[in-house]
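Tutorial sheet, problem 5. The two components below are modelled jointly, 357 residues in total.
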Amino acid sequence: MSQQDRLFNDVWQQYFPAIARVVQSYEAIPALQEELQQDIAVAVWRSLPRFNHQSSIKTYILSIAHNRSISHVAKHVREGVSTSTDDMAIAGDECPVLDLESARKMSRLTKAMHRLPVVQRQLLGLALEGLSYDEIAEVLGITVNNVGVRLNRAKKALKDAVERS
Amino acid sequence: MSDDFNWDDAVNEWQHHTPDLPALKRTMRWETWRMKLIIVMDFIALLALIPAMAYLFSGEHTTSFKVFFVFLSIWAVIGAYFDLRLRQGLWQQDGSSTRHMLEFALKRANAGVHIARFTVIYIAIFMMALIGWVAYLSVYEMAILSQEERWFALVVSLVVSAGVLVGGILFGRKKKQEAEQLTGMLRQYQES
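Model answer (C-alpha cells):
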C-alpha cells in the first residue's frame, strides 16, 4: 500500500461521517449518493498530496466534498431541489427506540436543506459541521462579511423550510 | 428542534448523525489515469498513421487512394492539434474555493461547446471529402473496387461519420445547458 493510499485511508476513516452528511445533503437518491461518494473519494485521494496545511485538514476535505457535490448537482441539472425527498431514508428511521426521534429530526432537517438553493445548502452544511466564518469564506471564495450576511439569510430560510415541513 | 427550529439543536443533531452509505469501491488509480490514457491513445492512433502511409506509398495503390489518405492523415493531425488547443488551460483549476471550481467548470463547459462545434465542422468536411473521393472512384477508377465494395465503404463511413456528427451536436447542446446552469450558480457566489 502506497503512502498516498495509507493517508487516504486514515483521512477517509476519520472524516467519513462528515463526508456522508455532505453527500446526503446534496443527493437523496441512494444510487446517486453512491456515485457522489465515489466522486468525492477520488477527488480526496487525488488532492491529498497537494494539501499545504494552510487550512485544517477538515476544512480541506469538506471543501473537496462540497465542490464535488456542487459539480454533481450541476451535472444532473437539478439546481435547488435536487431530487424528490419524499421517499428519502435516513439511517435510523426504522430504529424503534431512542434513535427514532433523532432520525425524524435529521430527516426533517435534510429534507428542508434539499429545498434550498445550492449556495445556501453549502453555507449551512459547513456551518453545521462547525466551521468558522473564516473557514467558510475560504471554502466558498467569498468575503467573511459576506458569509455572515448570507448565513443569517440561509438560517432563516432553513428555519422556514423545517417549520413548513 | 421539536417543532420550532433551533440552530444549536440542529448543529447537535447534524454532528451526531452518520448516514449509512455503501462501501467505497477502489477506483482511484483508474480515475486518475483515465484522462492521460485518452491522450496517449490519441497519439498512438496518430503514430499508427505513419506505417499505414508507408504501406500505401510502397504498394501499387492509385493516386486517388494516396491523395485521400494523405488528406486523412493531415486531417487527423489538424484534429488532434485543435483538440489539444481547445483543451488548453483545462487540466487544473487555479484556486480551491467553490467560486474557483465553478469558474473552472464553466470554462470546461464552454470549451466543450467549442469542441462540439469544431467536431461538427470537422466531420462535415471529412464527409464531403469522403463522398467526393467515392464519386471520383465511381467515375474514374471503377476497376479498383467492385460496386458492392464501394457502396459498403461509403455506407459504413457515412453511418459512422453521421453518428459522430449527431453525437457532436447533442454533446454541444448538453455542454451549452451545463454552461448556462453553471453561469447561474456562479452568479450566486459572486453577488453580495
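Marking note: The first helix of chain A runs from residue 3 to 26. Full credit if you identified this.
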